Amino acid sequence: MAPSTQVDLLEPIDLAEHLEKIELYLGQVCQIAGISKMQLDYWTNKAQIPTKGKKQRIYDIGALETVMLIKQAKDKGLNLGAAIDAARRFREVQATARS
């Protein structure tokens, strides 16, 4: 099969459809969110962010979004408690809008 014909077989991939499958380690979440491991540990406990894993925490894409929303709220001047509440409410509104 000629190379140009092989390329014609391919279709664009919508990566958004696959994001729910992604699992990230603590260090990766910290790097993406721009926070320290100590902050992430504290926020995970305080906000009760669900994680997987026994020896090492593993975060799914929803948990990453929550962490990034908390970071955004803190950067805008909210204290941690208010930032957690804002992140929860934002995710609830988004979930309702999607359904």
Strand content: 5-15%
Task: Describe the strand arrangement of the main beta sheet, using strand numbers.
Answer: 1-2
What about the largest sheet? 2 strands, antiparallel
CATH fold call:
Multidrug-efflux Transporter Regulator, Chain: A, Domain 2
What is the CATH domain class?
Mainly Alpha
Number of β-strand runs: 2
Helix and strand run: HEHHEHH
Could you give a quick summary of the protein structure above?
The protein has 99 residues and is mainly α. The chain has helices at residues 3-9, 26-33, 37-46, 61-75, 80-98; strands spanning 23-25, 58-60.
Write a concise keyword list for the protein shown above:
99 residues; mainly alpha; Multidrug-efflux Transporter Regulator, Chain: A, Domain 2; two-stranded antiparallel sheet
Structure description:
The protein is mostly helical and 99 residues long. It has helices at residues 3-9, 26-33, 37-46, 61-75, 80-98; strands at 23-25, 58-60. The longest helix has 19 residues, at 80-98. The termini are far apart.
Write the layout of secondary structure elements.
Layout lengths: L2 H7 L13 E3 H8 L3 H10 L11 E3 H15 L4 H19 L1
Antiparallel strand pairs: 1-2
Helix pairs in contact: 4-5
